[in-house]
Design brief:
With 300 residues, the chain is α/β, with parallel strands linked by helices. It is built from twelve helices and seven strands. A hairpin with a 2-residue loop joins β6 and β7.
């Protein structure tokens, strides 16, 4: 039984098989518990990432050891168009998710996020928002008139204090995660990078190097057609992971002899700066993935 669940803020639309109509129920913890009892024995349950609304049902399914995969909505929408389903409603989406599960169940990664990872993801996301707000207020201060300068300065002070408190909370949470210390043993990987990788890429250490690079959007793809041979390009993936790895590489290529030699060899071959940096970011991610893979193998 391949189940598709379309999640919204208030409702869950559930399709137990591609050919069956979907049913609707409230998206509450109690209703999630009752739904899970009906899904015992399901081969796979597929739901879309919906900005957090999917966490209640996903955690409930995980607790009851029912295999569940949280997928990218864009991938499912492209699949729906490919099958000729152009209409879009919650019930149709549930049917499409069920069909998607039946076609791709062998390759879909299973959801294995723990409550600690969820908390870490929320903290990292909030920290990112605070950093952006702090940059905005610092830029505003440069051109602010005298009437508002004091207010802007107060906001900068408040945001700075909140950012420090949040960073301490993230560091405390990282100390409870054994994989965090392993990641931070790699040159260029600090607490913020570690927190982002653990929160945004729970698949790290559970996929091979090519798969993890593609998931992050750091794997080059060909662009060839007929006699045309285009340049390889990177596309899609998880932007927060790419951004944080790019910053980590800025440090690693200065203080890690192997990464520095790899970067300089690419530049010597005539590769543009950004191409070399992306290649280094991919190499760094593959190294981190291998370390976690070996760690998980020893702890099983």
């Amino acid at each position: 039984m391949f189940v598709g669940i379309d999640v919204s803020k208030n409702h869950l639309d559930v399709c137990l098989a591609p050919a069956r109509p979907a049913s609707q129920r409230p998206n509450t913890p109690s209703d999630a518990e009752s739904l899970v009892l009906e899904l015992k024995g399901a081969s796979l349950v597929v739901i879309e990432a919906t900005g957090g609304y999917e966490q209640t049902i996903a955690q409930c399914l995980l607790k009851h050891q029912i295999p569940v995969s949280v997928v990218n909505p864009k991938r499912v929408r492209d699949f729906a168009r490919a099958t000729g389903k152009l209409a879009k409603t919650d019930k149709i989406d549930a049917q499409v998710l069920s069909l998607f599960a039946s076609h791709f169940h062998k390759e879909l990664p299973l959801y294995k996020t723990t409550p600690e990872n969820i908390a870490l993801k929320e903290l990292v996301s909030l920290r990112s928002d605070l950093v952006q707000s702090l940059v905005q207020y610092k830029n505003r201060l440069k051109q602010a008139c005298q009437a508002v300068r004091q207010h802007v300065k107060q906001m900068i002070k408040t945001l700075t204090e909140q950012l420090k408190a949040l960073s301490k909370e993230i560091d405390t949470l990282l100390k409870s995660l054994p994989e965090a210390e392993l990641l931070q043993s790699v040159t260029g990987i600090g607490s913020v990078t570690t927190a982002t990788l653990i929160a945004q890429m729970p698949e790290l250490g559970r996929l091979n190097g090519k798969e993890i690079a593609a998931l992050a959007g750091l794997a080059p793809f060909n662009r060839d057609s007929g006699q045309y041979r285009g340049k390889q390009f990177c596309q899609g993936g998880r932007k927060p992971v790419r951004n944080i790895l790019y910053m980590a590489v800025l440090c690693a290529r200065r203080f890690d002899p192997k990464m520095k030699a790899f970067y300089e060899s690419l530049i010597a071959k005539g590769k543009p700066f950004k191409v070399a940096m992306i290649a280094c970011a991919r190499k760094l991610l593959v190294i981190l993935n291998a370390k976690l893979r070996d760690f998980y193998a020893l702890t099983v």
